[in-house]
Amino acid sequence: MRARYILIPLLVALAAIPIGYAYVGWSQSGPGIGRYAQDWEPEPVQGYWDPAAFYTAPQTVAGVFEGKQCVTCHEAATPAIVVDWRASRHAQAETPIFCPACHGEDHQRLHLPDPAVCGNCHATQHGEFLDEARYGFPSHVLAMVRAVEAPHFVDKPKAEVQSCVQCHSVATKCDSCHTRHRFSAAEARRPEACITCHSGPPHPDDTTYFASAHGRIYLEEGAGWDW
Fold first, then answer.
1. pLDDT at 130 exceeding the cut of 90
2. Which residues of 108-117 are buried (b: 16+ CB within 10 A; e: fewer)?
């Protein structure tokens, strides 16, 4: 009789472990990053959110290409990207900055640029970005570390925390505020760029801002400002 009282709770506890992992939707196969790297497996989209850690170059095209060749091909394959690039300061510079400068020349070894890659040219901006770390969190540069080091990153359902990483990726790529491939500094200065992440129930900063005197002035006059 006593053995039954011990055995039944033990079996329930053992069954709860795989059921719990199934509920939160995480795979133990890894390899993630952070303190709980072995307890979660990244989704493919995380290659775009944290390219240095997870991006894998497509193997569908082989060869080493010059910038003008990239543009010629992508005018057909991804025309909107080329339109944005042509409108950017990269394309309009005296010496245009073509695709290989950021992505590499070997198509099967392409990489998505992370802040370190952008910092090769934008050293001042990259230095200011890294300097945020001395103030601790919350800060843009520590956002991804804060996400993957938190216990709830593996405790909660995968779909829920993946939506968090979409904004926390501001630490691991530079197109959160000025979107690719135009990379417009004017776009990044506008409040709408900020409220892409600073909105919603966890941090309704957009509601607070647009209800403030500053927000009201922006709504009334912002369209005519020199961004």
1. yes
2. eebebbbbeb
